[in-house]
Design brief:
By secondary structure, this protein is of the alpha+beta class. Helices cover 28% and strands 22% of the residues. The chain has helices at 4-26, 82-89, 94-98, 134-150; strands at residues 56-64, 67-75, 101-102, 113-117, 120-124, 156-161, 164-166, 168-169, 175-176.
Length: 192
């Protein structure tokens, strides 16, 4: 036999359920009389200078005496070798120069560009890049190799002009006509 309390509880639940159903019925969206055309926004491909995203912090190497010195640079987001080569092209600060840091890469007025093929960074250099002394070429190659292999998928570097691969000196000054790695410039290992 149901008690008065149980019957009152059931009645209250029934009233609350009825109110909730009535409120939900008033919130529904009715059917449209005719379809409405919706225009999708036009998509545009990002250009290298307008890539959206978080700036990247990459390692870049400078010359200090006879060794590489590791620095960090913040660069815009990019794909492939672009962030590393952008960081390498950034000038040294006054404080870095005061600490004895320098670059062995010649100033060409043209930014270095490159592409990655099967873990080999193919870095395109302008004509005249090989007109610096052999010692400076060694240091420049060490800078390129350590920087490019630090924050990309590249494990080696080859210099190219057009479709021609250029021979480069290793750390002993010996010209090699193959992709070079950090092992080729182990004599210039970073001190920091």
């Amino acid at each position: 036999m149901p008690t008065t309390r149980t019957a009152a509880g059931r009645a209250l639940v029934a009233v609350v359920a009825g109110v909730v159903l009535a409120l939900l019925a008033d919130c529904s969206v009715g059917a449209q009389d005719a379809p409405v055309v919706v225009q999708a926004p036009q998509a545009s491909a990002p250009t290298p200078s307008s890539r959206a995203g978080v700036p990247l912090t990459v390692q870049v190497y400078a010359v200090q005496a006879d060794h590489m010195y590791r620095l960090t640079r913040t660069v815009p987001p990019g794909a492939g070798l672009e962030p590393a080569l952008t960081a390498l092209a950034m000038p040294l600060t006054t404080a870095e120069v005061a600490r004895g840091l320098r670059t062995a890469l010649p100033t060409t007025g043209t930014a270095l560009k490159g592409e990655l093929r099967d873990a080999v960074a193919r870095v395109s250099v302008p004509k005249g890049f090989d007109h610096i002394s052999v010692r400076e070429q060694e240091l420049a190659m060490a800078q390129l190799v350590f920087t490019v292999t630090a924050d990309t998928l590249a494990s080696s570097v080859v210099l190219v002009q057009g479709s021609r691969e250029l021979p480069v000196p290793d750390a002993t000054g010996q010209l090699v006509a193959r992709p070079v790695t950090r092992l080729d410039y182990a004599a210039y290992q970073p001190t920091s």
